[in-house]
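Researcher: Here's a chain I'd like modeled. Treat it as a single chain, no partners, no ligands.
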Amino acid sequence: LHAWYSQSLQSPRMDLCHVPAVREKGWYLALMAPNVKGPNYAWLDPSRLYCHPQGLQDCVADLLQPFQGDPIDMVAGIDAMGFILGAAAAAVLRKGFLAIRKAGHLCVQTLTQPYTDYSGREKVMEVRTDAISPGLRILLVDQWVETGGTMRAAIQLVERLGGVVAGVAAICIEDSEGGRWIQERYKCTHCVPPRLQPRFDRHQ
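Model: Modeled as a single isolated chain. Structure tokens:
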């Protein structure tokens, strides 16, 4: 399996029809494409995974499995790639979906939260104030948690409005200071098998 991961990550093309005979948790990680454009870009592009029908289904199923039976009222996805996984998770759970946006896009009353993203840039996130009522249990979803700054800002927005973070889900939660802070305080799930986590933490 390790060799298949390594070979697939280097492949420039993707077979949308191929499904492994044995689908272990995380098999779809090999569908992600490595960075070929240099240091100004993320080291890995998960969006190729979303093009694979079975890969996307299994990824969402793995993210939701730890929350089976948990009370979840709404799913919130973080701008922008968290919208994909978040909306897919909401559809499976048959719950509503809330978009947590980068500031400046919503024409309604919002609550804002400044944060520093994985690249060190200062940004502001916002959420509409009429969607979260006190006690509402929200599953937060993003594509990736690297330094944890973006996810932590989303957590702060939910809690400032009186919502409860029912959990945090992402394809990968890196073993960074911010990633550990989140995992120590909230129920979390991600798709990277333990044996591969060190490689993801080192961006290999």
